[in-house]
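Quick one, probably user error.
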């Protein structure tokens, strides 16, 4: 029974979010229900992978020090520049 439960959990996972900073950067990811699923200060050169729970999109994302941070969602790069004001990017991922 445990193996089928872990298989179901894996199948229920949504797309992954990849974060990487070239300088310290703060990132917060909030699910559509308002629950924070990731909130952390990223260190330069220490990539993070966030497992997005199925059904939690759209995600609200805030990235501090956005010019020094790269974001990939579901295997695709996210352009932070259009959503960046005063080094902070705020955007929604669907």
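Nope, works fine. Designed sequence:
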């Amino acid at each position: 029974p445990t193996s089928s439960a872990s298989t179901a959990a894996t199948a229920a996972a949504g797309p992954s979010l990849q974060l990487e900073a070239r300088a310290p950067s703060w990132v917060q990811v909030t699910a559509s229900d308002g629950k924070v699923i990731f909130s952390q200060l990223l260190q330069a050169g220490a990539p993070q992978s966030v497992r997005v729970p199925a059904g939690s999109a759209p995600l609200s994302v805030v990235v501090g020090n956005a010019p020094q941070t790269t974001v990939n969602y579901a295997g695709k790069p996210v352009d932070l520049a259009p959503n960046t004001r005063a080094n902070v990017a705020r955007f929604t991922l669907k």
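The chain is about 10% helix and 55% strand.
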